[in-house]
Amino acid sequence: MFFGFFAIMAALRGNYEDSAQAIVAAGVFDGLDGRVARAMNATSAFGKEYDSLADFLSFGIAPAVLIYLWALKPFDRVGWAAAFLYAVCGALRLARFNVQQHVIQDERVSKRYFQGLPIPAAATVVSAMILFYQAWGIPAEEGNTVGLWRWLPLFLTFVLGMLMVSTIRFRSMKDFHWHRQRPFLALVGVVIFIAVLTIQMASTLFLMSWAYLFSAIHSHREYRQLLAEGKEVEEDEVEDLTV
């Protein structure tokens, strides 16, 4: 939540790069908080709700404010609507996820797939795009770009909002345990990733975020195939299963 609030304040001051980096930092801590809570046996219903509020601030409000001030403001009402749509869809995505977590009790329901684009991933795409523009000197600030580069932030904001509330399946990566089977190779992979990230963080995050977006083409097809084979259960049907 601190990094989300910092991102908003930095964006209001015109420090767009610092704001984007703060959102990325918030994403790192978002990936750790659940693991830390489980390791300390400190999970609770209050913690889950508070985590959702922190997510909405850091990955819903902060990216919307950032992208609007950075590139959408010159589009006037269209830019304002795009930023608002992103924030609202982020809130809906979190609310739907929370409801599903309450009703999912059947063990046949897979947690390997997210329904819709996770809001931290959407915020990472926004931040990575801004860092990429800044690193390569693309003049996107205040909408001064021309052609594709000028319209990409506006188009992407609308797309991310719709993806968050869609039924497209994205891999959650929760079933990947190869690091336990081959810990040495996992360690080498982490070191290589950190080295590449250090050399060119903006390009690495940009490519990784877009790769995750396009991975939905495969993951959704994979999910539908498993569903047809009876190996998966639609999350939308869980409420009927648990009545």
Structure description:
With 243 residues, this protein is mainly alpha-helical. It has a two-stranded antiparallel sheet with strand order 1-2. Helix 2 packs antiparallel against helix 3, helix 3 packs parallel to helix 5 and helix 4 packs parallel to helix 6. The longest helix has 28 residues. The protein is globular and about 50 Å long.
Count of the domains? 1
Which structural class do the helices and strands define?
mainly alpha
Terminal Cα separation, in Å?
A: 36 Å
Overall outline? globular
> What Rg, in angstroms, do the CA atoms define?
19 Å
Number of helices: 10
How much of the polypeptide forms β-strand, as a percent range? under 5%
SSE run: HHHHEHHEHHHH
What key phrases describe this protein's structure?
single chain; 243 residues; mainly alpha; two-stranded antiparallel ribbon; 2% strand
SSE map:
Blueprint: H1 2-12, H2 16-39, H3 45-72, H4 77-103, E1 113-115, H5 119-135, H6 148-164, E2 169-171, H7 178-181, H8 183-199, H9 201-228, H10 238-242
Antiparallel strand pairs: 1-2
Helix pairs in contact: 1-2, 1-3, 2-3, 2-5, 3-4, 3-5, 3-6, 4-6, 5-6, 5-9, 8-9
State the gist of this model.
Helix 2 packs antiparallel against helix 3 and helix 3 (45-72) runs antiparallel to helix 6. This protein is mostly helical.
